[in-house]
Amino acid sequence: MAKCFSFTATQDSCYRYSFTRAGLKSSTTDLGDGTIMHCWIPKKHNPSKRTLLLIHGFGANAMWQFNGIIPQFMPKFNVYVPDLLFFGESYTTRAERSESFQAQCVMSLMEAQNVTKMDVFGLSYGGFVAYSMAAQFRERVGRVCLGCAGVCFEEKDIGEGGVFKVVTSIEEAAEVLIPQTPEKVRKLVKFSFHKPPPSMPSCFLQDFIEVMCTEFRQEKEELIQTLHKNRKMSDLPKITQPTLIIWGEHDQVFPLELAHRLKRHIGDNAELVVIKNVGHALNVERPKELYKHLKSFFIDNHPSSKQASHGNGPKAD
């Protein structure tokens, strides 16, 4: 008997409705050279507001990762939420798989939307992309928040004696981050949460895999492999923008040691906040506390918070 109901697809539709109700609309941009970027953009860009770019990590599409904080930011910002390449509706036929290329594609997308300056919050893998954007486009990226983003890890950190304790190889990491069985989903949840939620039945987990984890599987594996291969601290540029590093105390995906390493690397421009009793999935385990720190950084402590001086110029809707 053919399956007639998908819990995952239904939840995805609910998130789509939530984004639309918050004031966003779905937009697809052809960047040329076989690259298509999907993004949630404001229904009407307000030039008196600053722009905030939210960049997701591995897992489901961007809606699933930012649904909890979108409504709070909409009154203060023009919010843009892209799907990175090989997530959601974004893809490329080109061979590049680096976070540098992802960053260039996101910036090209913003250029196509006539947005010239933006603040950025990158979550996990999205933090790698946000960091690269800040390094490549210093004049266009303002404040940067990196959430549980192990930008400072090195190739040697995975394996015997490395800082990663839950995986022993990049192949194992890919199997967990791109789960293909219900048991692998359970393993991912266990690693991502300090206090994992009750396990769901295998039929629901298999449905999630079929909807969210099968398309572009090879390309996603290549993203992970490229992130790891020959990675060295000596090759990582220092960003100069005001930066908030926010981390879960019990993060097992990117251990807390990497947060302190990143703070030392960036220096005085960076502030580190560690949220107690939480793992890697900050946005799910502690959404209110995460928003509190984001609000403090992007709104309360912004030098132009009381004046609309972070303009983006005219924006054609």
Number of helices: 12
Residue-averaged pLDDT: 92
Structural class: alpha/beta
**Helix coverage percent:** 25-40%
The count of β-strands is 9
| Quaternary class | single chain
What is the N-to-C succession of helices and strands? Answer: HEEEHHEEHEHEHHHHEHEHH
- C-alpha end-to-end distance: 46 Å
Gross morphology is: globular
Pfam family, one: Abhydrolase_1
Organism: Salix koriyanagi
GO molecular function: catalytic activity
Domain AB hydrolase-1: 51-287
Task: Explain what you see.
- InterPro entries: AB_hydrolase_1, AB_hydrolase_fold, Epox_hydrolase-like, Meta-cleavage_hydrolase.
- It comes from Salix koriyanagi.
- GO terms for molecular function: catalytic activity.
- Pfam families: Abhydrolase_1.
- By secondary structure, the protein is an alpha/beta fold.
- It has twelve helices and nine strands.
- Strands 1, 2, 3, 4, 5, 6, 7, 8 and 9 form a nine-stranded mixed beta sheet that branches.
- Helix 5 links the parallel strand 6 and strand 7.
- Helix 4 packs across helix 5, helix 6 crosses helix 9 and helix 7 packs across helix 8.
- The radius of gyration is 19 Å and the shape is globular.
